[in-house]
Design a protein that fits this description.
7-stranded mixed beta sheet; globular; 328 residues; homodimer; alpha+beta; 60s Ribosomal Protein L30, Chain: A
């Protein structure tokens, strides 16, 4: 299916008000919205007198492709990358705003389906979280900038600078699957979806384990962050912020690589590179006091005193590598 | 000056971390930020347990032109369009997030200057408001999506639905100047700035009267909204939301047109069209109980019972017209 084939009017054929009237009813409502979309601004409850806020942008041709993604998958991905950042602070997601820049010849049905994806993402991992406002602008390039809000419920925010020597490193889910899905799409195009649906669909519309249980499981964490760029890159950032070295366990990395190879058909060598250097799985990287890793997490190594390398694997330093938006 | 002539490295020549390290120090800090940029998300104080939030996007080639604007002017404009929406709710702006999508061959100096514009805007109209987070993505089209936050300090938000029959209509500043500046740029290109600097600079980098005094002056308003698309269009929206007709005074509109003609050289006929149909002055349209228009506002007419037309001028219905992002 191509975007141009979607039935119904184009953005250029309706007024901004008519466009919004079609999209608003499909968007999830936020339990904490005192005033939703439709005025100059929204008003949202901040129960403990603070709010967590993060923003993440997706650009067509760079962060996603209309040749690969269905419109609702783009909505899911845009929501998840932001919701994961909120959860990685130890907060419950409460609301989103969505700034969309789209070509004037975009079918309104495309935006309706994108709204459906935002709704599906919220209902799956952040029930009660909804869209409280947004903006639509005309642009030659399709850009989706989501800003997400969260409630800490009186807790301190979980920082990437809190890792302590002796902590266990753990991760909330499998790594490398999204990177493997991207690699398959780059090599084989859209038909990769048929051959390796698990990896490709996870790349296009991930559903990471960042639901209400995850916020509870992070209650005792010393540090946490969303792995959006790659394990090696994001672990190196945690290492730098905390002044430690992150010593990763080769056994767990190999087991993850095995799982990635199975769902993607990639070689073990490539699969291990995906685990270490692939992005966009949106698992939570966290550290816990020795013995304190909660059930939903996979132990991945140990925080040690800062050494020559920010990140080691089986005791050897590894070079952080992963997603860089401005590379070449 | 062309963007490509700016000295120093391009976005593609630095890592995301190196880029952010150059930009962050130039951004204004938010007094209410408990945790600023650098982690997965920021944490901001919401003093009365609520926050106001709005988002507005600017796209190169549609909402601004690199042939006309200096980078810091783009920053000013992006900030003001959002700050005005917060103030129009009766709230004090507290924080911004900025999602930027830019071509990889953009000089980092361009973003530094854009950050300077964000800082200048905040320091002029919203001291204490700062940037608490952001994102930089690669894009063929330059897109700036700002999300702004505000504090109501215990007051009820000012809605566009609150206009009451018998209210006086008033506006916080001159209208039509930005539209006139845009018209001059479209007709004469960048040299319009030299001939009519007041109109052109106001269009490129407006400094509307939305400072702390304005929030105080709005305390007794029945309704308010930011005039971003045009007086006729935004007044028609207030009329629809409030179930009233907005009866505008021809004397005031003519006086404004006279002022617009003087700073732009446009004919009185064109200038009056700019007052009614020009956008982006970011004055606040508000209604007050009879006799209650505060000193800083210009009385502009009267709210009357809903009639055939949403907006009238000298008793005659006028067709709302103004900015539509998807027109043509």
């Amino acid at each position: 299916m191509s975007v141009a084939d979607l039935p119904g009017p184009l953005l250029s054929e309706l007024s901004e008000g008519e466009i919004l009237a079609r999209i608003f009813p499909r968007l999830p409502q936020a339990d904490l919205a005192l005033l939703g979309p439709g005025d100059d601004a929204a008003v949202v409850t901040a129960p403990d007198g603070r709010f967590v806020v993060t923003t993440d942008t997706m650009v067509e041709g760079k962060d996603f492709s209309l040749d690969w993604s269905l419109p609702d998958e783009i909505g899911v991905k845009a929501a998840m990358s932001n919701l994961a950042d909120v959860v990685a602070m130890g907060a419950r997601p409460t609301a989103l705003t969505v700034a969309l820049a789209a070509p004037t010849d975009t079918p309104v049905a495309f935006l309706e389906m994108l709204a459906d994806g935002l709704r599906d993402a919220c209902s799956q991992v952040a029930p009660g979280c909804g869209v409280v406002g947004g903006d639509i602008a005309a642009s030659d390039t399709l850009v989706i900038a989501v800003t997400a809000f969260g409630d800490l419920a009186g807790r301190e925010p979980l920082l990437r600078s809190g890792a302590q020597v002796g902590d266990e490193i753990a991760v909330s889910g499998l790594l490398g699957v999204s990177g493997a899905g991207l690699t398959l799409l780059q090599r084989h195009g859209p038909q990769a979806r048929e051959n390796f649906p698990d990896a490709v669909c996870w790349h296009l519309a991930p559903y990471p384990a960042i639901g209400p249980d995850m916020v509870a499981e992070l209650a005792e964490a010393h540090s946490a962050m969303d792995i959006s760029d790659s394990l090696s890159l994001d672990a190196s950032r945690m290492a730098a912020a905390s002044g430690v070295t992150m010593a990763l366990d080769i056994t767990v990395v190999s087991a993850m690589a095995d799982a990635v190879a199975r769902v993607s058909g990639l070689s073990m060598n490539e699969a291990q590179r995906m685990v270490l250097e692939g992005g966009e799985d949106h698992a939570i990287l966290a550290t816990f006091a020795d013995g304190g890793v909660p059930e939903g997490f996979i132990p991945l190594g140990r925080v040690v005193a800062a050494g020559t390398h920010a990140v080691t694997l089986a005791g050897e330093g590894i070079a952080p590598a992963g997603w860089n938006p401005f590379a070449g």
